Amino acid sequence: MIERHSRDARRSRVPIWLIVLGLVALFGVVALIWRGATEPPLELRSALDPSAAASRIDAEFVGSSACAECHGEETAAWQGSQHQRAMQHATSDTVLGDFASASFTHAGVVSEFLVRDGRYYVRTEGADGKPGEFEIRYTYGVDPLQQYLIEFPDGRLQALTIAWDTRPAEAGGQRWFHLYPHEEIPHDDELHWTQLQQNWNFMCADCHSTDVRKNYDAATDRFATSWAEISVGCEACHGPGSQHVAWATAGSVDAAAGAARGLTVRLDARRSATWRIDPATGSAVRSAAKPHDREMDVCAQCHSRRSQIAEGYHAGKPYLDHYLPALIESPLYWVDGQQRDEVYTWGSFLQSRMYARGVVCSDCHEPHSQQLRAPGNGICAQCHLASKYDGPQHHFHAAGTAGAACVGCHMPPDVYMVIDPRHDHSLRIPRPEETIAYGVPNACNDCHERESARWAAGQVREWYGDAPGGFQQFAGALASAEQGRARAAANLAALIDDRSQPDIIRATAAHRLVEHPDPVIQSSLVQGLNDPDPLVRRGALTALELFPPEGRLQLAAPLLDDPVRIVRIEAAYRLAGVSSSAFSPAQREAFTHAAEEFIAVQQYNADRPEALMLHAAFDARRGDVTAAEQRYRQVIERNPHYVPAYANLADLYRAAGREADAAATLHTGLEKVPPSAALHHALGLSLVRSQQLDRALPELERAAHLDPAAGRYAYVYAVALRSAGHVDRALEVLEAALERGPEDRDLLAAAITFNREAGRLDDALRYARQWARVSPEDSEVQRLLTELESTLGR
To answer: pTM, whole model, 2 decimals?
Structure first.
């Protein structure tokens, strides 16, 4: 389903892992990259995944009905499941909502639902802001809500943002409701049901149907999307089944007929070992190491927050050759890794001790019915001794209460899409002390809302002695990066080096290094580039933005031939600005192939502004300014409210010495998106470069006001004020910003410098001491502190 949370969150998740945040000094951040394109040779895939050898390139999808004759028990479990009903034609058997001339009003828009000649319709506001009648072609999901899809002549299917609550009436259900109940969404807003962020072809098709082919034609801006099976069928998880069916119907089913039995992929991780509970710990141990991650990859295609980067994925193919997963970053996750937005469990589970010990999805979930393998605490008692863990001596709550439920403390739910609770799959120990330190939620206060986090931390200490540390030990490092603290770079580097922490966390740390330039990161960056985990390698590549183009070549060139697509494409992008003459012949050939993959991904996703932006950025890096300009303008033409396009086009003009064109572009963007802090900031900088400081100040002030959490905006505004002779006002701006970000090095340095120049040595000393407290190893601040103390006789 197409899911959204709040307006604050949704503006940054469009979706967040795809958005280009800006490539240039105007934004002060680096673009995020989509990766992917063509598939590695079968020989390479076979080397990486032995099951791939059994996956013939001519295997075809045959449909779930072909599986039913031999696999009756599995088929019976699948029938009626959420997978089997993930997407259906709109009929009297599938439509659950009230279409008997029912009506629903939201933000002044009246929508009516009706049936005529066996077809289902909604009368509501269309893309032009005027009422219209639209036919419901498909249903989407069944529990606890059902959405409805409407088809347009250009092949787009759009998801209505009014959904039907399928819960029983006594539970509050059997009603129409809006997915954004507290928001007024005009017809030209990206979240209006007719607009970009409610588009089925890109947003959700490949998870609700089997073998989806998007088939977008950029020349005509049309879709011809197709599927092998309308819902999530057998082959969505097991891969195309024609060869297995051929084996099964050949008249001989012994090993000689084919050791691989024609299977596309063998999902045998669960069967490869047994679990034995260790009486000393009360927890189970796997009898043999997990042999592969094939099952995790199969589930990840739909149960991870990710972007699709290449068509043609099916079970058995490498996940990271077709998808780019989101890392553990805001606003998707809290800094301790807890779910914050809708992340679909995979990224959470990869952080868990369970995953590290070899647990797979099917250990807890029966995959055909999607039901838990045991009810209540019984699911956890499969591996955790009930006599030790399922009693008040462990959880300190009365039996049968919410506090006695394992999932209540270790998998607390959050509600999405207004009515849909989903459990956090990071399976963590509640740590209210991290609530105190970093502002993250904790399971204790989820129930005890009237109590403080300090109370909860005290209870934990009383029950268990010292606060239990838990498996996940990374919140401090990610919090330091999130808050721009002085030791952020060192903390991230240490996290990359710590192999005891989850790889997805180490990849996140590597990815965030680019925000914190510091010599201390270099050795960890080099290690990250050579890490066994591809997510870590890709994350480390993004930090190469800190190096000049030629300095990247030696570090990144070996990864142009990486066996994993997301790494190859990242390497190509990071090396796009390197002069061709700097490459050796072998490096140039590898770059050419990786660059072709990068471009193929952008062409595959050309229905999205993010892809066009990345293609334009790639062109700009390679010196093709004309092509870059054309692509940026294409984005603006199709998506006039897309802020990064204006900012990046303006920066392209700035780099070409066309400052007037840059300013004009930013003015145009602000006409479309007046509350954009980024565009006001960029325009202010453009005016500064044009020596129009008086006109620049209001723009810089507006940016700082619109986004007070962005210390960079406050810093630039304060510097401009000082340049204009408004020192007192500059110091006021710095002081207010430092209250929000007391460890921001740029803000502290400016506060020291400005106060010193104004003769306010006591204030300069105060800020120097503040800087020294957060960065005691910094020799420069220690020198400055000594100098100020000596001058003041302290």
So the answer is: 0.88
